[in-house]
Amino acid sequence: MTDTLLPILREASKAILEIYADEDRFQTEIKGDNSPLTEADKQSNKIICEALKDHFPDIPVISEETKQDSYEVRALYKHFFLVDPLDGTKEFIKRNGEFTINIAYVEGHHPIGGFVFVPCTSMAYAAFYGDGAVRIEPDGTKTTLRTNPFNLMDPYLKVVASRSHRDALTEKIIAGMNAPEIVSAGSSLKFLLIAEGQADFYPRLAPTMEWDTAAAQCILEEAGGSILQYPSLQPLVYNKPDLLNPYFIAMGALIDPETLPDLLSGI
According to the CATH classification, is domain 149-265 in 3.90.226.10? Predict the structure, then answer.
């Protein structure tokens, strides 16, 4: 599946970058949920969905930019692709390069394949259940990804969070940690920082959708980390009646997971 999806991701990336180079082609709209939509989102979505239909005609696709089947239909899906054709549209519009393309392959309610492409670096990240996670350089070189092992009260842990717009719940979590260092990034790059060992902990107590997290969840889990719902601390699941995610905590290889409920009880 990786060998099939990588050319699709590269083709979508090329279309995105052509528009990224010409702001006059952004053609930004505002969707019903008040989030932005650009021509790049549309072109990437068209390329990916048509290619998935050609290569995997029997596997349904759930994409952010395509009208969804009703839950009565989706509930019958045994497997499906979950697609965000341009994750980080706001970052795209800001022109800071921190946007990605996400494709997850989901069986039942859990992602067992994760594929993320970073257009501005041509870097790909891929994982399949049981096979580990890799970063793939533009020349095809593969590097195995492993998260950092850590104790929750270690000093100077790298915590992924906004530098300037943190919500009150996130502030309380950070306040309960031991002099953490704040790291900021856009889109699914937040999870990839943890998967690569460049960050340790990411509390997300704000809305996200299933297509925002599924691909990166597989990559992070295969690199030794996890994404757990708050407050249940169970793994995120997919193809729910409502495609909105619950709040969650993403992290690397936590050595003392018994300390996590104590930290979260303070919020």
Answer: no
